[in-house]
């Protein structure tokens, strides 16, 4: 009878020691609350995970399973959200795995200076996400030549299609200009920004307009109220839809903070 392989250590984040505990009910990818592994002046947030899923070979195959990957990402995000309520964590990449507690301590030792400087960069700051969409243009009203019978000749059809296209292009231009102005103003509140590629509606299933801005902002907690209010004012403009999400752990800036630390 073979001996079961001991569980591995999944590392969600690194943070400084903090007062208090994670919110009750906070659960990670295993459905259980994560554990805080203290090592010197750093803390790793860890979970015990089965080797049959997270050892190098099985993990490579698991990452091809989109349902498994989505469930793992949700658990990962849930832990980071709980941490963000009590401290300023440095998120680690999805599926950062060590062999055991000693391996986690080696991870902290080898990256100590990089981690501590990144945590200084992110201390007291959270990430907000802002997306701006050009709303779909309403159908143009029929011209007099189209209206009486409801029948559309070839020339009238082309005119209508041209008006539709021009309306879409004009709406997109207005939304892009609004997004540029908004991004400049939000950047004045933020300490760092990250502009991501626009989201493809075929992947998200969102048919509510064309995404013209998909950005993240690193904002000091004490400035969050002004940041949110500014987004709210712009969201009232006609022809655009603004989506605000957060506050999140600073996923988009963990790499930037580490690069600056290096």
TrEMBL record:
<protein>
    <submittedName>
        <fullName>Gas vesicle protein</fullName>
    </submittedName>
</protein>
<feature type="region of interest" description="Disordered">
    <location>
        <begin position="136"/>
        <end position="179"/>
    </location>
</feature>
<dbReference type="InterPro" id="IPR009430">
    <property type="entry name" value="GvpL/GvpF"/>
</dbReference>
<dbReference type="Pfam" id="PF06386">
    <property type="entry name" value="GvpL_GvpF"/>
</dbReference>
<dbReference type="GO" id="GO:0031412">
    <property type="term" value="P:gas vesicle organization"/>
</dbReference>
<dbReference type="GO" id="GO:0031411">
    <property type="term" value="C:gas vesicle"/>
</dbReference>
<keyword id="KW-0304">Gas vesicle</keyword>
<feature type="compositionally biased region" description="Basic and acidic residues">
    <location>
        <begin position="153"/>
        <end position="179"/>
    </location>
</feature>
<comment type="similarity">
    <text>Belongs to the gas vesicle GvpF/GvpL family.</text>
</comment>
